[in-house]
């Protein structure tokens, strides 16, 4: 996988949007929102103009027109260049073909789970599972409605999102069973980690008195 000149996913979303037709940045933002791309790509609309300028700088988009309606400010219309089409194609090919290591925050929490007592973890995971099941039901209902008006090609990211949430819920459910049944290997050591240890004498430790060197006189 080659190193890209631009790695912001918003830049790829802009290229894919301009592939449809030339647009000005405000229209790009509206199209991304209307097509639901803000649910699968983190879109900072405030930085959209900077992204478009960077794409132009690298020759991936170019100015195709300048619109002016009445007293409104001019709007610069951008179109994708042949270099932009090649960049978008190669970028998409890399993303689809090569798994990339991502860092979901829940994974971070799981890696540090030992700081909580198992008895604290159980109700927290139950709360998460409840939220996931609500999310699944809502997502499944929304997806069924979308199938009525849109081809499946434009909904595959929604299917993937729903499948990932379902997979997470299944894992959380299984892990919860292990915790509540005490079947998780190492759970007793995990619990003992949170038990208070023996009391220690407070205050700084004394350093041992140095032994006199050989041949030196000892104090009486």
UniProtKB/TrEMBL annotation:
Listed InterPro entries: Metal_resp_DNA-bind_regulator (IPR052509), Tscrpt_reg_PadR_N (IPR005149), WH-like_DNA-bd_sf (IPR036388), WH_DNA-bd_sf (IPR036390)
UniProt feature, compositional bias: Basic and acidic residues: 188-220
Residue ranges of domain Transcription regulator PadR N-terminal in the record: 14-89
Gene3D superfamilies, A to Z: Winged helix-like DNA-binding domain superfamily/Winged helix DNA-binding domain
Stretches for region Disordered: 187-220
Protein name as it appears in the record: PadR family transcriptional regulator
Organism of provenance: Streptomyces pseudovenezuelae
């Amino acid at each position: 996988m080659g190193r890209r000149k631009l790695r912001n996913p918003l830049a790829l979303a802009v290229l894919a949007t301009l592939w449809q037709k030339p647009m000005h940045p405000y229209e790009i933002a509206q199209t991304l929102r209307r097509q639901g791309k803000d649910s699968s790509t983190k879109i900072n609309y405030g930085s959209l103009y900077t992204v478009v300028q960077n794409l132009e700088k690298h020759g991936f988009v170019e100015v195709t027109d300048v619109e002016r309606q009445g007293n409104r400010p001019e709007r610069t219309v951008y179109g994708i260049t042949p270099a932009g089409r090649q960049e978008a194609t190669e970028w998409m090919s890399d993303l689809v073909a090569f798994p990339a290591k991502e860092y979901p925050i829940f994974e971070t929490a799981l890696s540090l789970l030992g700081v909580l007592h198992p008895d604290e973890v159980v109700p927290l995971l139950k709360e998460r599972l409840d939220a996931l099941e609500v999310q699944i039901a809502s997502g499944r209902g929304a997806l069924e409605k979308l199938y009525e008006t849109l081809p499946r090609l434009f909904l595959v990211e929604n299917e993937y999102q729903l499948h990932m949430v379902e997979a997470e819920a299944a894992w959380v459910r299984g892990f919860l069973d292990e915790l509540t049944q005490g079947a998780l290997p190492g759970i007793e050591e995990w619990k003992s980690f949170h038990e208070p240890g023996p009391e220690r004498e407070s205050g700084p430790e004394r350093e041992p008195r140095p032994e006199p060197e050989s041949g030196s006189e000892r104090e009486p």
